[in-house]
Q: What sequence folds into this?
């Protein structure tokens, strides 16, 4: 599979109760881009992300990953290319130990135990969590769970890393550790977040969603510098771009 683009075309999705969630979303992301998806609560961010690896199937429109359409018959191939880190790490950590969780995917692909052990150690080391290998997930802090959840995705060696609110519930130190970790990944990254400072640190491009529709798509510096746009969509400028309340300097 060529992994040099992800293409979403006229994507529409309606919840079973008839509530529209996505209304004609269209964009293309090329290999190596880091893209933030921002918007107020209920804008459709998480719903959009779930369509990128086939966790949800569109009512109409399409999602295409490197030439392969996201359809039920292609999910095995798609999920090898698109790794999804959910907002709640407990949704991804369910085995007795962290190492067991990270090994779960590779074992189901039929890799040998020697290959799995090597990949698990490498994935945990890449997120600074090798020391957590034998720990039960329920005894981890939120930041440790987040790193373990990312390792369960990285071990599958995806081309595209999709993260839903990765900074949620983290203390300032854990948040900064996560940002530095994500900066080091060469993957294509798509990050849905309310944390615009994190988005500014990690993403050169930002897509703004409102009521399931893209209302802006462009360089992050331009999007976050447009105060009327942000205000109209329930967002505030990142703290890093605001003037100091005491001295008035940026």
A:
């Amino acid at each position: 599979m060529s992994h040099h683009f992800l293409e979403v075309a006229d994507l529409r999705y309606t919840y079973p109760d008839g509530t529209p969630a996505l209304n004609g979303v269209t964009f293309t992301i090329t290999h190596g881009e880091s893209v933030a998806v921002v918007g107020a609560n209920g804008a459709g961010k998480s719903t959009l992300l779930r369509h990128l690896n086939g966790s949800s199937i569109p009512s109409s429109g399409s999602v295409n990953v490197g030439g392969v359409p996201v359809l039920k018959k292609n999910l095995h191939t798609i999920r090898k290319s698109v790794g999804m880190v959910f907002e709640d790490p407990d949704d991804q950590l369910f085995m007795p130990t962290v190492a067991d969780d990270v090994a779960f995917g590779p074992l189901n692909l039929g890799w040998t135990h020697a290959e799995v052990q090597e990949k698990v150690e490498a994935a945990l080391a890449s997120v600074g969590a090798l020391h957590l290998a034998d720990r039960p997930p329920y005894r981890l802090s939120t930041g440790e769970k987040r790193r373990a959840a990312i390792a369960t995705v990285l071990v599958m060696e995806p081309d595209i890393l999709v993260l839903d609110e990765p900074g949620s519930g983290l203390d300032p130190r854990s948040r900064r550790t996560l940002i530095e970790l994500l900066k080091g990944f060469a993957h294509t990254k798509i990050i849905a977040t309310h944390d615009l400072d994190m988005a500014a640190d990690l993403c050169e491009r930002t897509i703004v969603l409102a009521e399931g529709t893209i209302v802006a798509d462009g360089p992050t510096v331009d999007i976050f510098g447009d105060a009327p746009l942000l205000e109209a969509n329930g967002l505030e400028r990142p703290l890093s771009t605001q003037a100091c309340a005491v001295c008035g300097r940026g």
Summary: The mean pLDDT is 91. The longest helix spans residues 113-126.
